[in-house]
Amino acid sequence: MEFKIYTDGSSRMSKNSGGIGIVWIKDDKVIQEYSKGFKNATNNQMELIAIYIALRSIKKPIDSLEILSDSEYSIGVLTKPWKPKKNIELIAKIKKQIVETQKLVKEPIKWTHVDGHKDNEFNNRADFLATQASDMVL
């Protein structure tokens, strides 16, 4: 089984809220969607939390997994030798989850930066879910 997971985060500083959107893809079809709102959240935190939840969703062995995000920051701090100045504990938690998830994925997990300014159906959907969730936080 091969999966792609699109993740996105949103922050509404004026409302002091944030949200995440996640879209699971198998055979170029949406098989599941998830969104959740948060209080007191930054955009980077939301981007990272979306990735964390996506990784945790893998519970059984699969052949391949691709995580797609329009957050260059998130992919950079998780997969490249970037040194974060904030969100250090969250990033460490996600890196541990990457190791655990990789045990269930036959091939190395693939990380792809999606250009958020280009039209991409699944990235747009993850963005919509994240924005909607951040707007619904009371």
For the largest beta-sheet, the strand count, sense and barrel status come to: 5 strands, mixed
> Total helix count?
4
Q: Describe the global form.
A: globular
Element string (H = helix, E = strand): EEEHEHHEH
Helix-and-strand structural type: alpha/beta
Cα(first) to Cα(last) distance is 39 Å
What are the main properties of this structure?
single chain, 138 residues, alpha/beta, 4 helices, globular
Structure write-up:
Helix content is 38%, strand content 30%. It is α/β, with parallel strands linked by helices and 138 residues long. Strands 3-2-1-4-5 form a five-stranded mixed beta sheet. Strand 2 and strand 3 form a beta hairpin. Helix 1 packs parallel to helix 3. The termini are far apart.
Describe what is shown at a glance.
By secondary structure, this protein is an alpha/beta fold.
Describe the secondary structure blueprint for this structure:
Elements: E1 2-12, E2 17-26, E3 29-39, H1 43-56, E4 64-69, H2 72-79, H3 88-102, E5 110-113, H4 121-136
Parallel strand pairs: 1-4, 4-5
Antiparallel strand pairs: 1-2, 2-3
